[in-house]
Amino acid sequence: MKKIHLCLVSIVLLTQVAIAQTKPAHLGQLDIALKHNDQREQQTLRQLQRLLSAYDLSGWLFTRKIVIDSGFDTIPHSHPILTLNTRHLKDDELLLATFVHEQLHWYADERPKELEAAYQELKSLFPHAPVGFPQGGNDEEWTYKHIPVCYLEYQAIKRLLGELKAKQVMQFWTTDHYTWIYKTILEREREIGDLMRQHKLIPLRQTSAPAAEAQRKAIHQLRIYEIFESNKKAFHDRFRDHAMRIMARYDFKIIAMWEAKKGERTEFVYLLEWPDRETMKDRWAKFMADQEWADIKKETGQKHGPLVGEIEDRTLETTDYSPRKSFGSNPENR
Does the structural domain 213-329 have CATH classification 3.30.70.100? Predict the structure, then answer.
């Protein structure tokens, strides 16, 4: 048993190193374990690493622990640990969609009140939903609560792969599993989207390009942290590998980050964009109450001492003559 445990730990550590070398810097570390360390799992690991490097998935990462299991009867699932099988070795799009789908379960589960409200409304909108494979979930609640997750999956892969490939993925799923759910999303996407927005179940990353009025309401937040040369590396490691990942869980949109000098003082400066003040306050409250973040701060503080001194926070509102209202990548925002 000790040998098996050590083997699994070694695989996780090697995986972290490989991902750190290949992924974009803004993606936090992922702990990926191989259940059996066989050829198919190793191939799927390399395939997933390549996808993580090729696509900006920062807006759809809500859990960092992942297991790849080549077992014949392994079905992808999100809890207690996100688990992928090795079924899609020859199809990047299907592995990408599966990975995003399971990540989105973590997003939905962090919003139980919103999900429950959507569930009740979906029962009225789609009475007598089917139960059981391949049309629906194991029970009625499972079927209805998968509609939001599958809808968000579709929106995510449209952003990542484009309309045509995303629709091809959805059409394949309509013949594979949750067939009624995926067919319903394709046929009644607008109605489901309206319901999702009504219950605030759309990650900010998946919202469409803002209209002119929404752009005028958008605000920016400037954060300035005093950091220390003695443990500056530990601060950057914590912010890059943990803070950004957990912030993404709560829809933080980081525009840019800088390091600055003010006399003898070293500063870390970053700019956030929010749709409005209410959202900004709500997301910060959720982030500060996150238990994982509290544990990480405690652990790093014990190991390295205080990583942050004084903090300055400024809310910025664009003037009516500002050349740009938003700093997102969409040219319509300029």
Answer: yes
